[in-house]
Amino acid sequence: MTTLLYNIGHLYQTYEKAPLLVRGKEMSKVPFIQNAYLSINNGLIEDFGSMTELKSFPFDQSVDLSHKSILPAWCDSHTHLVYAKDRADEFVDRIQGLTYQEIAAKGGGILNSAKTLRETSEEALFESAKLRLNKLIEMGTGAIEIKSGYGLDLDSEIKMLQVIQRLKSHFSLPIKATFLAAHAVPNEFSNTEDYVTHIVEVMLPVVAEKGLADYIDVFCEKGYFDVNQMERILKAGAQYGLKPKVHVNQFSSIGGIKAAVRQNAVSVDHLEVLTPDDLDQLKQSNTIPVALPACSFFLGIPYTPGRLIIDNDLPLALASDFNPGSAPSGNLNLVLSLACIKMKLTPEEAINALTINGALAMGLEHTHGTITRGKKANLIVTECIDSLADLAYNFGEVKIADVYINGISTNNSKA
Ligand code: NIG
Ligand code: FE
Fold it and tell me: How far, in Å, from the CA of 354 to the mean position of ligand 1?
């Protein structure tokens, strides 16, 4: 099946040979072709260029984009998309003055989600996650990572990971699964060390044997898992070939970045608190920092110092952190606006963080994140825009006319 998209206003993120990531000053550039065409063959980008260079050759279908623009679909490298129930009551508690930690201490938070998830069937979890993911695709998400971490016992973690596996089969966008049993200590364990031992000796071997996870994660934070416990879990994961992507420095800097770098983490996520030493650790590593501004917005906590990170010649990725407790939205168009408005990224920097760098943060750098021949045709067709800034400027709006996954228009597939 061949498709020609023509009369494209601007075709953004075009690379003959795509970099694996962009860092520092490179992040301010988004290469583009004005008045362009793009051809797709069997779900892959076959060719692209200026309309003046388009040779006529047969296509199964062609679409006149009437000067709408195209960019690679968003790559969301950090979500908790599978959950049983919203936590709107906690939202109201927080409005009335309680902090995230105070809510967790009175039985809310992650343990609240674990309680409801354990009571919910795999089928019901799959159906609700499917609805959420369909909405995200409409809003431009073309690749996604999804974590476990609301089960916190063997059966329930497996149930979550099986839901993610079913999503992988049901949807044609790439989905990466991350094993996050170390998200909080469940009530049946009075001692964190004992739960860590249970994760390492009981849960991890089953998850690995069933091939249910691509990555391993730990919430390294005061009151959750300390640095030694995180390293123990990451080392155990490495023995099964699971690379780390970890939650660190959300509320405090306790050495999680240094340890994650030591364990060759693909990404360190959150970083709302970042010390000069943490920054130095990142400079000496191949680990990509991931900022989650929707979480900062929702919880009213500091934003990750993305400007500082980029000005230190580091790469940065952005993700949604979609979850019922700290970021109940997977709308990456809003994340784009927040990154510009609150973190002082330019629209180009934020778009690089959501495409090329987001792809790298989940191991998809060779197939997604840029408009490059041979990469997957996962594309956002924008409404008619004058510049990339338009996508961030009307915050809360989704200026997307269509999304292509593997070269198929999701508008058409809905019809
Ligand atoms: O990334 N911080 C840890 N985990 C999630 C929140 C999970 C929850 O509150 O349910 C996060 O923000
Ligand atoms: Fe998270």
Answer: 20
Do 350 and 384 share a domain, yes or no?
Answer: no
Look at residues 77, 147, 76 and name the one whose alpha carbon lies nearest to residue 117: 147
- Pair 266, 409 in one domain: no
Check whether residue 123 and residue 165 sit in a common domain.
Answer: yes
Q: Looking at ligand 1, which atom is closest to the CA of residue 250?
A: 2
- pLDDT of the chain, 415 residues: tens digit per residue: 999 999 999 999 999 999 999 999 999 999 999 999 999 999 999 999 999 999 877 899 999 999 999 999 999 999 999 999 999 999 999 999 999 889 998 889 999 999 999 999 999 999 999 999 999 999 999 999 999 999 999 999 999 999 999 999 999 999 999 999 999 999 999 999 999 999 999 999 999 999 999 999 999 999 999 999 999 999 999 999 999 999 999 999 999 999 999 999 999 999 999 999 999 999 999 999 999 999 999 999 999 999 999 999 999 999 999 999 999 999 999 999 999 999 999 999 999 999 999 999 999 999 999 999 999 999 999 999 999 999 999 999 999 999 999 999 999 765 4
In this structure, are 109 and 154 located in the same domain? yes
State the burial class of residue 272 (Cβ atoms within 10 Å of its Cβ: 0-12, 13-18, 19+). buried
Tell me, using a 6 A CB cutoff, whether residue 247 lines ligand 1. yes
Environment class of 28 (CB within 10 Å of its CB; exposed 0-12, middle 13-18, buried 19+) = middle
**Same domain for 265 and 235:** yes
State if residue 322 touches ligand 1 by the CB under 6 angstroms criterion: no
Instruction: Determine which residue's CA is closest to atom 8 belonging to ligand 1.
Output: 325
Give the domain range for residue 92.
75-360
Judge if the beta carbon of residue 113 lies within 6 A of ligand 1. Answer: yes
Q: Where are the alpha helices (DSSP H) in 189-288?
A: 192-198, 204-209, 227-239, 256-262, 276-283
Number of folded domains in the chain? Answer: 2
Q: What is the CATH number of the domain that holds 102?
A: 3.20.20.140
Mutate-to-test residue for ligand 1 from 76, 77, 79, 80, highest number of ligand atoms within 8 A of CB = 80
- Do 15 and 131 fall within a single domain? no
Distance 35 CA to ligand 2 centre (A): 39
Identify residue 24 by its one-letter amino acid code. Answer: G
